[in-house]
Amino acid sequence: MSTAHTPGAHAPVKASTGRLAVAWALVGVPLAYGVYETLTRVVALFG
Amino acid sequence: MGWLDRERTVAPPGFNRWLVPPAALAVHLCIGQAYATSVYKTALVKHFGASLTEIGVIFSIAIVMLGLSAAIMGTWVDTNGPRKAMFTSAVFWASGFLIGSLGIFTSQLWLVYLGYGFVGGIGLGIGYISPVSTLIKWFPDRPGLATGMAIMGFGGGALIASPVSTALLKMYDPNSGAQGWVASGDAVGKLFLTLAVVYLVYMLFGAFTIRVPAEGWKPAGFDPAKVKTAPLVTTDNVSAKNAIKTRQFWLVWIALFCNVTAGIGILEQAAPMIQDFFRQSDGVSLVSAAVASGFVGLLSIGNMSGRFAWSATSDVTGRKRIYMVYLGVGAVLYTVLALAGSTTTFLYVALAFIIISFYGGGFATVPAYLRDLFGTFQVGAIHGRLLTAWSAAGIAGPLIVNAFLDAQGKPGQLDAASYQPALLTMVGLLVVGFVANLLVKPVEARFHEPRPERGRYEPAMEA
């Protein structure tokens, strides 16, 4: 996982993994729910 | 409102660039609701006593406004940065729902046209292009992957909005358990109010999470000199004003237009089409309405996953080659679908799935294609202007399919052969797009922006 490096910055600040996890969860959970709901409809196609 | 300015959004040292894709997704997942309008379409027809066409106009206005606002506001988005653009998009998108709900509660359809269609459509256009330029700058090593992640959200937004809206309509309507239930106007109005609040909050999360890279920033281990490994990839920059004067812009416009028109041809008719393809001589289809609904769901998954998978693959293959696949292989698959699609449902479903994944892939790959050809300087604005191809395809695709089908017979009486003229016309369009893509060459140097400093990676104004 890459982090930003700004010219002139001597020590990169430790990336906030907590913030990253929350941000991805906020978009990932609804998306996973939407995909799951859609797949339950798709099952009829192969039933 | 200075806190929205681009200067206030420059990333501090150590900022993790992987926070940018979820910020972009937060916006695209919300505006992707535009493809879930079928959930309340029948309810609005009943509430307003209007025809399906009159209600369909709401969506048409929104898509036309998407193309127009993306084209007109693209330069403004590039100049003012992604936070101000996302904030503006959130306000327009939420206001669209609020005005639309007022129209529903007061039974004035024109207010729904104005709200969801006009105002919401502006939110759609600004929101769609707002994170693209920024993502390309954060991921100069993988621009296709980055834009694929965001634009995948536009396909995924409908997957979320559809079941959530259905659940909310049932909750808001006390008669939801009745047989043959159609949601009341009151329930749709309350749904619009709820979506306005939820989408506003979500999109503001995106607006306040996004950052632009500091000038001169590059990912660890990334050498800009290595970007120009393919003949089509430039390290120069072309302004949006000049880009539309180039042959390359219009060739890519034609390629996108043909790809989208062909995809819409299937998407627009997905449910009735699969039933018609497997209609028996007694007029009864082997495919039930429930199975057809599952097919539509599968196409949505194909559309969404194609946006991510094909766009990410384009970082390895190059943009021109992947477009050759979308248009060339797409034309072959379309031909097989037209001539042999009715032999087995498995073949039909597999062909349609791949074709729709190419449709989604075309949308998601095009920002990186533009970056390759015109540089990063005003790629957001150029992308905005290119999206007029989407608006044009949104009109042409359904027109072509419906005109051919109307000539073949009435709905419920059509079979696989009835679709052949329309599908083979789409094959012709894909071949035109394939040739246009083949003709794309590097942009002539006379269109390049002057380089103010030697060795500088990109002009300062953008993001």
Textual characterization of the structure:
The complex is a heterodimer of chains A (47) and B (463). Chain A is mostly helical and 47 residues long. Chain A has a domain at 17-47. In chain A, 64% of the residues lie in helices and 0% in strands. Chain A is built from 1 helix and no strands. Chain A has one helix at 17-46. Chain A starts with 16 loop residues before the first helix and ends with a helix. The model of chain A is unreliable at 1-13 (pLDDT under 50). Chain B folds into 2 domains: 2-209, Up-down Bundle (Growth Hormone, Chain: A), CATH 1.20.1250; 226-447, Growth Hormone, Chain: A, CATH 1.20.1250.20. Residues 454-463 of chain B have low confidence and may be disordered. Chain B is mainly alpha-helical and 463 residues long. Chain B has 17 helices and no strands. The interface between A and B is large, with 35 and 45 residues.
Biggest interface: A-B, 35 and 45 residues
Distance linking N and C termini of chain A: 41 Å
Which ranges of chain B are low-confidence, i.e. pLDDT below 50, for 5 or more consecutive residues?
454-463
CATH topology of the largest domain in chain B: Growth Hormone, Chain: A
Radius of gyration of chain A: 19 Å
Number of helices of chain B: 17
Unreliably modeled segments of chain A? 1-13
Indicate the CATH architecture of the largest domain in chain B. Answer: Up-down Bundle
Q: How much helix, percentage-wise, in residues of chain B?
A: over 70%
Distance between the termini of chain B: 18 Å
State which percent range the strand residues of chain A make up: under 5%
The total strand number of chain B stands at: 0
- Over all CA atoms, what is the radius of gyration of chain B? 22 Å
Class from secondary-structure proportions of chain A: mainly alpha
CATH superfamily name of the largest domain in chain B?
Answer: MFS general substrate transporter like domains
The helix-strand sequence of chain B is HHHHHHHHHHHHHHHHH
